[in-house]
Give the backbone structure.
Amino acid sequence: MESSGTQQLDEDIAMRKYCKKTIIKMKLKKRDSGHRQNTSRQKPEFEDPALIPQQLVNLLKMKAFREKLKTAAEMEFHDPQHCRSCQVKQAELARDDFIRRKTTRLLSPLLEDKIQSHFLNRNSICLIGEVLRDLPRPTDDPGLVWEALKAREVELTQRKCTS
Ligand SMILES: [Zn+2]
């Protein structure tokens, strides 16, 4: 890349300027410390924002931005049609889907049979239950059984006449 070369040059110049400034400041401090020691107003140089040139800050910001841009571009160009892991995943999903559909198709007649037989069994059981419910029990009072039978007969003859 052409711009990275000039950028490196700018960075070197900024770095050299920064180092020169720092050295000058340190020399001044050393000279001053001979006259007044341990003054509470003194700050360590790395806390002084004036020591870091704005040019270097800007360059580093620009560099970080370019890196971000590069990463974003790489991510955007991800093409699933040409990506090996994406293709493998797609094949797996297609196979699973195929198996699921075939299994459903094979199981559905079996399920239908089961439902039918269950329905029939339940129906015959219900019929037997209904017949048993209407039959008199041996413990029933014979008088009441007779009454019920006669009432039933009356009911049946009435039904025949009306229909
Ligand atoms: Zn992929």
User: Anything to note?
Assistant: The chain has a mean pLDDT of 81. Residues 78, 80, 83, 85-86 surround zinc ion (CB under 6 Å).
